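JOB MANIFEST
job_type = single_chain_structure
chain_count = 1
residues = 761
[input]
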Amino acid sequence: MPSIVLAEGKETGIYYFRESWIQDQELLKATFPADPLIPMQSNPVHYLRRGAKAVEILDIGLDHSGKEYHLLSLYDLIPVLAVNRDTTKAEITGWSDLNKYDLTVGIDSNSDMLLLGMSQGLDKDWRQIEQSKKLMQDLHTRGKLLFSGNQGFTAGKLPDVMILFDKQARALQASGANLEIVFPSEGTVAFPVALLSKKPLHLDTTVLQAKLSEAVYQADRNVTNRVKKIDSDYYAAVIRAESMINRELIKPFRPLRTNKYENSISYVILLCILGTMGTYFYFRVSDPVLRRYTMAVFLLLCFWIIIRMARLLSGYEGAVHRYTWYLYYVALLYVPMLFLWIALHVDGRISPKRMEGVKKGTFAIASFLLLLVLTNDLHEWIFVFEDDTLAYRHGNLMLLIGLFYAVFVFVSAIILVKRAIAMPNKTNLLIPVSAILALTLYTVIFVLFLNNKIATELTRAIILFVLLIFLSMVQFGLIPLNTKHGIIFQHSNASMLIRDLDREIALAPKNESAYRFYVRKEQPIRGGTVIWLEDRTELQQLFDEEAIINDKLEENYRILQKQYEVERDLQTTHAKTRLQEQITSHLQADLQNLDHAIRDIESGTGEIQKRKLSIATLELMRIKHSSHFLMVYLMEGHIQVENFLLSIQAITKLAQGMGIRCDFTDNMQGYLSFDSADRTLAWLIHSMKQALEHRVEIGFYLQTKVDVLSTTLYIEKKRIDKERFEDLFCRFYHQNEQINTRILTSAYFYAARLQEEQVRI
């Protein structure tokens, strides 16, 4: 909250914060006599970043003030008590004396910072303001508390005691007021003011301080023990507490003095009210055209509130500020247009063709004016900004928008009033007209005397004004709701009647309908009961047709399911037959090979015959178990791993009888296909036959995962080390933690090569 802001801009001129209560033009002219004074309305640091040489601010403790910027202290602002000795002789020494005497107490408009001085003196802590709050409440209760307004206090008319900054009090003294400046004995605070610049300022500080003293900015005082100098860190904490000070101390006496978060909360409440009212009208307005117009009005008002909240919370700088401001006119232009449409539709004397022409013409005018507002940065015909600041004045074309608004609202009001006068029950006019007049009077008074928050308050006032107009039209019967049962149903063909509280018929249907299927319903209404028959004939026909279609679909589904089962059985039978033929041919070939092998055995002698006999025995075992697997698979559709392992164990025992050492462990579970079982068995027999023929040592293990059976055969030229083989298996096991089943079969022979194979289960 800068007390005053000035800046020397890129273009010659000294900018100052024109909304401040400090009238510092004389000081500025004396300090910078060659430059014109230009009002501004923005953050002072924003001007530094855009090229200004210096700005005057309160020491708010910028984090980068010691690095990027330079500060030159000017003067302090101290909250004090100014006693009017023309009206009172009371001995005032501190804040607590304000309640000891029957005095009128005035306080400046910037009361938040002034009251921080009071809270520091009475409560000693700006976070606990109970004593300060109680003192102000007592003054207000006794009617002794006055606020200065925007113009401040003048020497001709002053209260008994004023809470002012010391500079203000000295300025009033200089203008002829008989004031005694009292630094409260309990204590107060000092707000330091300094010049902030990017480069060190080359000013004659002696001359500057002399000018400050001449302009009653400084005076000699020996009260340093009563004044707490607020440094940067403390002042930052004070600024964070500002909203609490406003709520707890200022708002009870100045309800329009609110911060942006409190304004946003009030807008949220308005948004909820609009949503509730809009939903109510959507379901209760019986005329579909009026329902559409009403919904458009309420949606535009909700849009206006949301844009207003976004502007409040996003700050007041840059393009976002301007364009959220421009978007206000979406509602401000289209809502009067919709009011005219509603008034003409309610009046009912304009033809549909002319109504369409009026709608197109008014929409084109409102859209054209909105386009001018949204493109204002290109031409500034609506708002003219001063020297690239937020200070502005209205352009010439702003008159068109005001004329558009006034004409549309006036014409709509005349049409609706004439229509309302023609309606019965003219006593209904009393409540809404009184409310609208009261709201209008409040708006006029607010504009004349409290315009410091006019934009914020008029937003609420206009929205409440619109709500009252809609409620008035409903009260007059201009907008028909479905509570007016007679108006809605007297031109209807519905089979219904209305009975009063005595069950007598108040409204009978024009024609009786003989429904084949119907539901009788009864609903209490204001003043009686409405009874109607709801025709279900057409709905029942749709249900019957849907039932027939569902029966046909179920029959088709059963036929298709039977066809699918037949085809599946045929495919399964065909696959099993083809597999049986294929395996039979392989078995015949294997039997022929076995027969040749037996004949070769007869031709051999000694060790050769023994080895050939072992090979033939292994081949016979493969044929036997393979045939067994085929029979099991054809009967059950799969082969259990337990049965497969039994065959492996039988072959292993046979191999041990032939002198082959086999160590076999397993804990396998699950199922195998015939193909995977047959190929694994063939590979095992093939490996044993190689071991008998070539005298090699073989190490292998079988591994089954979820869907893969892996058989790995390790054959090396040198003798396989058992510990190395088991270590290899353990590493494989840890890398495959999701393994369901394991087979470890070890046999030791001599080997000459390495193989690996995976079979899909």
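[summary]
Residues 260-476 form one domain.
The mean pLDDT is 68.
exit_status = 0
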